[in-house]
Amino acid sequence: MRNLPLFLFLFGLVFFFYLFYIYQAQSTELAILREQLENLQQINVNTKKQLIDAKAEIEKFRNVEEAMKNENVECINKFDECTTQLRNAKLKVDNDVLEKNKLERTIKDKEDLVIELRRSVAEGERNTTSLKSLLSSQEVISRQLNEKVEILKKEMAALKGTANSLSRNIENPVNEQVPQFKVHETAVEVTTTLSSAVLNSFDLVAQRPHEGEVPQLALPVGPGDRVKLEDQAEEPARDADKSLARDEDYNEKKHPPAPDTLLENGGEQL
């Protein structure tokens, strides 16, 4: 019984140390738990912040997604427009190619037409040159005919003077009337022949083209037409020469000595 208080004291001391140990252990564990709690709270706060940031990023990505969808729609529309424009451009290119080919054919036709017109112009210039030469030859023929007409007029005037002198000589004696009558008849026939020659010459002059007038001749087309044109241009001169030659042959055959004799007598009397 005497050791009971000591036993109680020791039991109390052990119990006290036990409680102190438990307190220290619990305090340490509590501190660790508090620290863990603070860490968890900090993690929670950080997680909340990250969640908020994630939500903000999600909203941003949603906006970006909407923008991308809109851009996708715009790109699709632009693609359709570009496809339509490309189709129209191809059609325009095809039309331009057709127009180009058409213009090239037109240009070729125009060049052929220009070449043909140049040939026609060259042919026309050659025809003009030939017509000018023809006109000059006609003028020469006209001058020759005028000179022949003047000569025939002078001969007619001389023959008229000779006929007048012969008509005055008819009043001579009867024995001289017969030869004088024959001479007078010869002079009248020569005068008639020369008058017909003058009329033929006047007809040829009237039938020839007027001065400055181009004869109505067909333009040469084939290779032999130019020769025909020149022959046609020389026909009036040949006709005039033939007519004068026929008149001279007629006068020489019918009354060979009469014209010279009459001209000599007329010249002596004049």
The number of helical elements comes to 4
Helix and strand pattern: HHHH
| Rg over CA atoms | 72 Å
Gross morphology: rod-shaped
Structural class per helix/strand content?
Answer: mainly alpha
Strand content: under 5%
Q: Tell me the span between the first and last alpha carbons.
A: 228 Å
Helix content: over 70%
**Strand count:** 0
Largest sheet: none
Quaternary state, please? single chain
- Mean pLDDT over all positions: 74
Residue windows where pLDDT falls under 50 for at least 5 positions: 173-184, 208-223, 254-270
Characterization of this structure:
- The chain has a domain at 135-269.
- Helix content is 89%, strand content 0%.
- Mean pLDDT is 74; it is low at 173-184, 208-223 and 254-270.
- It is an all-alpha fold and 270 residues long.
- The radius of gyration is 72 Å and the shape is rod-shaped.
Q: Which features would summarize this protein structure in a list?
A:
270 residues, mainly alpha, 4 helices, 89% helix, rod-shaped
Report a brief summary of the structure.
It contains 4 helices and no strands.
Task: Describe the protein's topology.
Layout: H1 4-169, H2 177-207, H3 225-254, H4 258-269
Helix pairs in contact: 1-2, 1-3, 1-4, 2-3
